[in-house]
Amino acid sequence: MTAQDHSSPMLDIAAARALATSLVDPITETEDLPLAAALGRFCAETLHSTLALPRRARAAMDGFALRLSDLRDGQGLPIAGTIAAGAEAPDLPAGACLRIFTGALVPAGADAVLPVEDCTEEGATLRLSRRPEPGENIRAPGSEQPAGGVLLRAHARIAPQHVGLLAANGITRLRVLRRPRVGVFSTGDELDAQSPDSLPDSNRPMLLALAAAAGAEVTDLGLLPDDLPAVTARLADLRGQDLILTSGAVSMGGRDHLRPALIAAGGRIDGWRVAIKPGKPILFGELGPAAITGLPGNPFSAFTGFHLFAAAQLATLTGQIPPLLFPLEARAGFDWSRKPGRGEVFPVRLAHGEIDGMPVLQRLGAGVSATLFPLAEAEGLAFVPAETSRVGFGARLRWMPFVHRGV
Ligand SMILES: Nc1nc2c(c(=O)[nH]1)N[C@H]1C(S)=C(S)[C@@H](COP(=O)(O)OP(=O)(O)OC[C@H]3O[C@@H](n4cnc5c(N)ncnc54)[C@H](O)[C@@H]3O)O[C@H]1N2
Ligand code: MOO
């Protein structure tokens, strides 16, 4: 595709996602890390448990370990002692019971632990208010985790619960993928602090933050000016990124230099423009070994473009299948008439209450892509298909909450 090609048809969302992800390859380089440094990283290999847990029978409640065959109706049991936490348990003496605490080793010979709530102590004698079931409140060896079970699959993102599970299995180091390297440019002389009517650059810090939250090692590549030779030279010099994100300069205007600069710098344009609102002017390309995704300049369009396409590229880089878009169902807590023609993404938050057992979403903002203000209170993004002309109160909606997957 050339930089002048304004007539090529717009991609639909699925085709654009497929194209975007086809431009990146899963990372294969790995590094070895201590468990404490692995949060948010992607596991390089499937980890299996080497132990069945618990290794030995342990009490599930504070109470008394006893042998069911010692119980006689109406008779108590002498309390022969206490099993201290962390201590080796003595054998259970014949005809007696032992005081035991949650997690302590069950003494050999005991086949139930009766909780303190179900007995009373009369001096050194235990009175039982009921007969326990065989095995009651005993965590049997291997009952919680099999040996050889999967602890963490290759490419899973390491979340706090994985840190706990691996620690419980005595794993203190693990092999993770190197982070995807993402460089972010913004474009436009109006963002230069020296210009007379300068605007704050919101997209670059936001895209750096989005990529970092998705697990990338991010590099701030700065601001590209509205000058074709200068943009070309900056792109031609670029090394060491897996994915380059830009915002702005990708539409039709005379200052929209990204496409010609990418070609002049030796790159390729693989796709341009997606049938979606907002975010139509978006570019998918390559620059040397890196993919380059040119997001629109309007800040909300850059934000949605990241969620729809760049997030899928990052998932692919880390060996994952990109998650489904808008996987959850909810009901509209608003009535909205719109112009059909393009699928539309808009910010939402959860309203109080439910309709037919489903969460209710409130639409935020007025569909203006130049502002991030509606995101102040947003909890996710919802989607309506191209043909929809009205979303009535209570209508079904698809949406995706903002979550940093797996962490
Ligand atoms: N004739 C046409 N004009 C426009 C079209 C079109 O199809 N034909 N598309 C419109 C749409 S939709 C969008 S979105 C914008 C996107 O254009 P660009 O990607 O080329 O973005 P810019 O023109 O560079 O900037 C647009 C807007 O966003 C502001 N901006 C840019 N970068 C940042 C940043 N890092 N932080 C904050 N704000 C930023 C910029 O100042 C402009 O206001 O084009 C429409 N026009
Ligand atoms: O599609 Mo633009 O991205 O409307 O704002």
Task: Tell me about this structure.
The structure is a single chain. This protein has 407 residues and is α+β, with helices and mostly antiparallel strands. It folds into 4 domains: 13-29 and 179-317, MoaB/Mog-like domain (Molybdenum Cofactor Biosythetic Enzyme, Chain A); 31-48 and 147-177, Molybdopterin biosynthesis moea protein, domain 2, CATH 3.90.105; 58-139, Molybdopterin biosynthesis moea protein, domain 3 (Molybdopterin biosynthesis moeA protein, domain 3), CATH 2.170.190; 328-401, Beta Barrel (Beta-clip). Helix content is 16%, strand content 30%. The chain has 6 helices and 26 strands. The protein has helices spanning 13-22, 160-168, 203-213, 228-236, 258-264, 299-317; strands at 30-34, 47-48, 58-59, 63-66, 77-82, 97-100, 112-115, 119-122, 125-128, 138-139, 150-152, 173-177, 181-187, 217-224, 243-247, 268-272, 276-277, 283-287, 290-295, 328-332, 336-337, 343-355, 358-363, 380-384, 390-391, 396-401. The strands form 7 sheets. The protein has a 6-stranded mixed sheet with strand order 7-4-6-5-9-8, with no helix packed on it. Strands 14-13-15-19-18-16 form a 6-stranded mixed sheet, with helices on both faces. Strand 8 (119-122) and strand 9 (125-128) form a beta hairpin. Helix 4 packs across helix 5 (258-264). The longest helix has 19 residues, at 299-317. The model has no long low-confidence stretch (mean pLDDT 95). The structure holds ligand LQZAQKY5 and molybdate ion (MOO). Residues 186-188, 190-191, 199, 201-204, 247-253, 256, 278, 280-281, 296-299, 301, 369-370 line the site of ligand LQZAQKY5.
